[in-house]
């Protein structure tokens, strides 16, 4: 096990009516709120009005910034920063999923900084101060509600980059499972795939000696595999949503990676895809993960055998010819096929060609993905490796 | 799943040399430190000197309060409060296990309160302010390093009572697995039993619908069952200790109970035992848990079957006569016997009589355990039930 610091200060509040009391939470930190959200669904399902009512009950004033898109854009962050300065905002409330939350975090960092907020995403500079951010989560997916990262895309250069800083942990995250009842199936599938990916990027690591977090990762992956089909089949299954929301927060608040050498190659490879083609991050992961697995598994096949046994329930150890390399290979291939089939069963494309993407931009995406150096730790990936993974995903 | 608030703000720092930089951590919160610890082992193994060196390097002054005993006493808490006031202490550093940490927390609450600190333990009063507390953990057991509870015993009345308050979360907890290499086996066994108990008190709950935290609890119990024998056999197994320390913190920082109706009857029944006989808390739990299980399992046998299958690896679902009640009964009995045997394999007594305790105080202990009302939620236990459990444990 590697040395680690685990810090998860975000207060998680889960409950059927939890968001109706958001004003009381905000009051601990600010008086003038910027409410950040995405599209019309927040208004049409009544959540917007619930939030406004609660803010008003707590005598909080607010201005709003709607229109956040998937793969959130830097231009809207700049707009938010200007708005905060003009209106003397002291708290940012994000009501939505990862894109909304990441936009809120980027604005929170930019408001307190004289330079260009993009410095934090590409220059390695660290914010010294940020406005406090709170979250009302409307879809379990990105895990941004309990994490300290923000992923933003610069439109003109199509760069998708990440800020990671302890100041970016939201003060609180309100999880109301009922808010998920009306989500489109496509978003549910992509969100669940993203949660799975956050665990798997930590799970497949080369160090070993992490028996406890192995088990925690496996527990979280099994939960996604079991409960995601449940909410796909019955979108009003409160308990299934509650478990998925909680799993989504734990999956990406850092504790599942404590002591591990995390990988994150699949995420980086996917980021280029969604920056280039603007497909949803989770949808891109459903395509990239199986290809990444097929490309790297030979580096540490024992990790994949453990995954097969504990997550997919394959009884590897009972088979008499376990020690045959061919049999191990078969188990691993079958398991990766099984995961691809799981993603497909959620209605997702698992090949680039199925998503209407050809090989014309592979070169440029592979170069951009590796412009800061090789990717991953389970297997170090150079530009050529990333290119091969795109090709395998075709 | 029930609604919940999960809040785990303690920063966990795990590493081989982590405690040598404690001064830098303390500096974020205070300038004048009370160093609380137990006996001579802290000095004889060099840890005391490492701490002093680090505090001095950070130009922090300190006074010390040694001599904390297992089942920590209120009288020492009073002594610590007086010392803090006299020396104008602004930070309390606990170096030890649960007793030391709980003493530090109680002092931290008492210093900022004009009345008797015992009010917080028996009167239901909540502290409004506490001094900041930091921890250097020397044994994985109580989980107090990452939790917001303090358990203190009032000597004259033999009452063992608990304070629970968000202010009692330590600011940081430093976990250095190497500090565990020289622990006596008896303490290792009792500590591991306590960790197991913290999970099991959350796991056996009547509500259901907690698929995710079921899995997290199971992951943590399996970790204890697998790694505790490893450190018993090889006390210098760094990775095993690292995993156990991390499991010990997660076991009791609250997240494993999120959404669940926790039980805590075994803890309360044991508390009377260790208040009356001054045996170690974990040693008492090794006796009480199997008796509690045998007394309550019929209330929700399906929970015990899941425990048998997922934690003990009993293949309940493959057996053709699973639906036979007698067979289910047999699986459950065998599993409880197996857990008792596990505790015994660590060198622990699993019956009161083996620990030299007879039935002469059962009545008074059962009455005291239930003086505020019934115990538990898996099965509600009245005075007579507690008495029966003591009898079963004889």
TrEMBL record, chains A, B:
Annotated organism of origin: Anaerocolumna chitinilytica
Domain Alcohol dehydrogenase iron-type/glycerol dehydrogenase GldA, first and last residues per copy: 9-177
GO cellular component entries: cytosol
Keywords from the named record: Oxidoreductase
Signal sequence residues: none
GO molecular function term, any single one: metal ion binding
Any Pfam family matching the protein: ADH_Fe_C
Protein name (record): NADH-dependent alcohol dehydrogenase
Domain Fe-containing alcohol dehydrogenase-like C-terminal intervals: 189-393
InterPro entries in UniProt: ADH_Fe/GldA, ADH_Fe_C, ADH_Fe_CS, BDH-like
Classification lineage: Bacteria, Bacillati, Bacillota, Clostridia, Lachnospirales
